[in-house]
Design brief:
With about 230 residues, this protein is α/β, with parallel strands linked by helices. It is about 20% helix and about 35% strand.
């Protein structure tokens, strides 16, 4: 049985995910199976090699012989990620999840397919997380959080308990979420963006970008006001 795996996207993130996947497969693969891992990138050129690994376009990946094909999309932009996952599904290729050995998962964590959990991510207890969640290095999600589909956490996101994050939200590196409560969770709307280093203390409406401590909408007036404040 020849199984072909691909990391879709050879950006910085894709190249970080690749060795995590290789290590995962070393532990999962039966001796009788042949297993190959490649990159897919729409910008690939014929015969391209990156870090000694073949890079294919989606079309050349489809043509490559294998008994089974699996793809994980390692692209942070959730709209692009969703589009590429749809493309894979239309071609009959299912998503799989990548999880570093150092990930800590405590109790009652539900998580959808196609997730990428990078080294040193911690998921604590009673979590409901949708499909294609990306948690970059050192991020954590604490108790009773609910996270939608196609949500991206950059490195070291601190998501405390009872926070609800809508589909397609992007959370920048080092962001901190103040905890909510069971009766009043902190709610981040669909497609919201949280800037690197923001400290989120209040709900964020859908599609809004926030920044700073405490986080406020990223508008020209707020940027200037924060500068004046020093
Ligand atoms: C919030 C964010 C998405 C805005 O991006 P953008 O729309 O391209 O905005 P710009 O970078 O052009 O910045 C617009 C203004 O906001 C300010 N700004 C941007 N991000 C900021 C932040 N995190 N904190 C404080 N101010 C910020 C900029 O200084 C700039 O001010 P100026 O116009 O007076 O120079 C982006 O800055 C960000 O934080 N992205 C997350 C980065 C990250 O975590 N990467 C991880 C990679 S793995």
């Amino acid at each position: 049985m020849k199984r072909l795996y691909a990391v879709y996207g050879f950006s910085g993130f894709g190249r970080e995910v690749f060795p995590v996947l290789q290590s995962q497969l070393e532990h999962q693969t039966h001796e009788s199976d042949q297993c190959e891992v490649v990159y897919i990138d729409d910008a690939a050129t014929d015969g391209q090699i990156l870090n000694s690994i073949e890079v294919h376009t989606f079309e050349s990946f489809l043509k490559k012989p294998a008994d089974e094909k699996h793809v994980v999309v390692a692209i942070s932009d959730s709209a692009i990620r969703q589009k590429l996952i749809n493309r894979c599904e239309q071609a009959g290729i299912r998503q799989f999840s990548v999880r570093a050995k150092s990930v800590v998962e405590l109790d009652n964590v539900q998580i959808g397919e196609g997730s990428i959990l990078c080294p040193f991510v911690t998921l604590t207890s009673n979590l409901k997380i949708g499909k294609s969640f990306h948690a970059n290095i050192y991020s954590y999600v604490a108790h009773d959080c609910v996270i939608g589909d196609y949500v991206t956490f950059a490195p070291r996101v601190n998501c405390n308990g009872n926070v609800h994050i809508g589909d397609g939200a992007y959370i920048g590196t080092g962001a901190v979420f103040k905890q909510g409560t069971p009766r009043k969770p902190l709610v981040v709307g669909k497609g919201a963006v949280v800037a690197a280093g923001a400290v989120v203390t209040r709900n964020i409406s859908a599609g809004t970008t926030v920044f700073g401590n405490p986080a406020v909408p990223l508008t020209r007036a707020n940027i200037e006001a924060r500068r004046d404040r020093g």
